[in-house]
Amino acid sequence: MHTDNEQVIEAVAATDSGNGNGSARVGSNGGGEFMPEYFSENETLKNLWTDVKRGKIKLTYLSRQTGNNKGTLSQVFNGKYAGDTKKIVGKLELAAAEYYKRGDLVKIRTYVNVRKLCTDAWEGFQINAAYGAAGSGKTEALKSFVNDYEFAIYVKIWDSDNSKEVLDKIMVELDLEPARESLSRRIQRISDKLKREPRLMIVDEADNSSIKVLNCLRQIWDDCNCGIILSGNMKLKWLMTRGDSGSQNLSYLYRRITKVLPLEGLQYGDAKLLLERYDQIDISDSCIRELIKMVKNNGETDRFCKIMDAAIEQAEYNKVTTVNDAVVMQAAKTMLWG
Fold it and tell me: Radius of gyration (Cα) for the chain, nearest Å?
């Protein structure tokens, strides 16, 4: 259960003569609004509807997760969507499950430091960068920040994306309509929008970009002084300092970056915090330290948590009440190479 949503939502079935969707009134909503019947199917959907109405979960986040635009989602949440809601509600349920899982994020150092980096970039109009091994938790921290603050937008770069495609992704997040136009025109439109409506641009998997993409972001920043976060793996540091070829002089780009956050990966203190979530697990310090070595550059925090989940599942299957060193190490061996 999402830690910020512990209040029990009591839904009372009701009939609304002016609404043919079949709705349930949520007594704790406070606004006397009606919950469409399809949101009363389970606790996840009930909590989602309530949190959206309270402003805790933004339609921007749900739009990004489901692929449906905010206008359509608004109609769905208000029970006014004329089309088939089944598929949309199904996607919303998956998005909600992911959100509530992240809502329980343990505040390990990566989470705290990455979010501070974002705040600094926004408040100081900075270009900041974070890099570290896959699985260290940087993406989860970035996404949680975007969901918490309307001023932040999130763009993920794939290795197949060219400069125009990256800019088009940014335009979509800024509610601009992408068009067949030059790179310079795209940059100008984005800059103009950011001058009117300042935003923090979070660019994840930036290690998949090119110098051309980074130069586009640099031009946008030069023109409007918005905040930018570049996040990626260890390759990002190499790209920012040596370029695509490995021998370029990029001081003109690197000197614009205010703060660089190298992420060290899972540490002992982080592991202890993560283990507080697992009541069934009772393992020794030596086991914890061995696991940290095993996941280093091999999934880090993400893999550590998956090992714990697998150990609990294995224990439940074998009807074991306490998950000890032996159970956890067995789970680790089935999930790690080498």
Answer: 23
